[in-house]
Amino acid sequence: MEYLASDKIKETLGDSIFSDNITVYKSLISTNSTAKELYKNGACDGTVILAEEQTEGRGRMDRKWLSPSYKNILVSILLKPQIKVEHIYSLTLALAVSGIDAVKNVSGLSAMIKWPNDIYLNKKKLAGILTEFSVRGKTPAYVILGMGMNVNWNPEKEKNILFPSTSIFIETGKETSRNTLMAEILKNFEIFYSDIKNDKMEYFLKRCNRLSLLTGTEISVDTGEEIIKGKASGIDKDGGLILEGQDGNIKKILNGDVSLRF
């Protein structure tokens, strides 16, 4: 069994804003909760928290995130970005694209983004991202990106999984080095993070749209206030979904729960 180890991740990652700020915990309530506490205690931009186990892992809408110990990636990245508030959700997509590229590099598998915060592979959920933030004035005080990715377990055997799910192990039939995978995710994410901070988002936006599972499909989006039906036509630089409604109007949706039929 391979254990997560900050020195092994750093060895593959090389020189990076994340290299000296990676901590691996045996067990946490949740990596996002720990990231918030570390922020209060003055943790720096680029702090990375990994856990072998979460006792109360969370996804969006307070859904539980299930994961056995020592099998998957459970990580939160604490950022203190000098960016426009409207670009916060771009960071969610940046981590999604970074995860997709990393999976491709280490396993050869081709995953896609299911807006706003999931990575899908062969029409099943491979990873989910939970973004939490606080705003101070016109910029975020912090942004915490939490991600759970199924790596070396079989979620199909779990009775309490809410959505059809898969893992790298299921798709390849072999185990993957989580340390190598995590290093690749951080390496990719640092590039996109820099681009977003410098408002150079053309390449990032092209990647998001190229990898979007929803584009061109008829979907239903529950925003919490209303349910909007229409055709997804793309993702904009703020991380918003561009939707052509059934009334013919073009709408931009920043957050919501998407339903679609495969």
Q: Please tell me the overall pLDDT.
A: 92
Shape annotation: globular
Cα gyration radius (Å): 17 Å
Which stretches are poorly predicted, pLDDT < 50 over at least 5 residues? none
Largest sheet report: 7 strands, mixed
Number of helices: 6
In angstroms, what separates the terminal alpha carbons? Answer: 36 Å
The overall strand count is 12
Query: In which order are the strands of the major sheet placed?
Result: 1-2-3-7-6-5-4
> What would you call the structural class?
alpha+beta
Oligomer: single chain
- Helix content, binned percent: 25-40%
Report the order of strands and helices.
Answer: HEHEEHEEEEHHHEEEEE
| Approximate strand percentage | 25-35%
Structure, explained:
- This protein has 262 residues and is an alpha+beta fold.
- The chain is 27% helix and 28% strand.
- The strands form two sheets. Strands 1-2-3-7-6-5-4 form a seven-stranded mixed sheet, with helices on both faces.
- Helix 1 (6-13) packs across helix 5 and helix 3 runs antiparallel to helix 5 (178-197).
- The N and C termini lie far apart (36 Å).
- The model has no long low-confidence stretch (mean pLDDT 92).
Brief summary:
Helix content is 27%, strand content 28%. By secondary structure, it is an alpha+beta fold.
